[in-house]
Specification:
Blueprint lengths: L22 H11 L5 E5 L3 E3 L6 H6 L1 H7 L26 E6 L2 E10 L2 H10 L2 H5 L5 H12 L1 H4 L2 E3 L7 E2 L19 E3 L11 H23 L1
Parallel strand pairs: 3-5, 6-7
Antiparallel strand pairs: 1-4, 2-7, 3-4
Helix pairs in contact: 1-4
Amino acid sequence: YTTFFPTISSYPSIADSPRSWSLVPALRHALTLYPQSTYFFALTPHALIMNPTHNHRNHILSPKILEKIMLKDTPVVPPDSVIRTFGNLKGDRIDLILTQDGEGLSPGSFVLKNGEWAKFFLDTWFDPLYRSYNFQKAEAHALEHIVQWHPTILTKMALIPQRLLNTYNIDIASRGGSKAVYKEGDFVVRMVGCETDAARNCEREFEDMRVVKGAQLMREAVKGG
């Protein structure tokens, strides 16, 4: 695998939009740079991979595994969206894997399968019309809009349990509460909302999670010794 760390300044097309919109052209850029890659894992900069030994192919990407863990007949936007995930999708037909929390879909951590559909999806998501709507949560609400009203997207999407791809460093009641808080062994933790809450400090929260990770590595070293 390889990593791609884009900068917002590389995407002048979002100059009049919230910075978080840069996620979409950045991922489209990655598809262009690495056409040989089968999957792309998009992760917000306000996150840490806590368990690098986690194997997506064994835990999420395998069609048989995905069919077992995907949330079927589930409201796309909780708690009571009339649009629900399909109940008969097959794992080998899925191109977009993401989670939701108590507030809605969570595009801060998701997996996209490379291909023509991925390009269509990103181009649709980044449509200037949706950016002009001034959604309260920018690209997140735009994603919810296109998933609910474009069957060609919903039929390729799988929602999976939040803990598999999207835990949080603190308990936020509206986002899943204690059920969404990071536990040892989880793949990734996000400092969700730290950049928009004046009462929080992203750098301090990152450091706190680095300390947690360091303690875990120490315990593993002791067990291995």
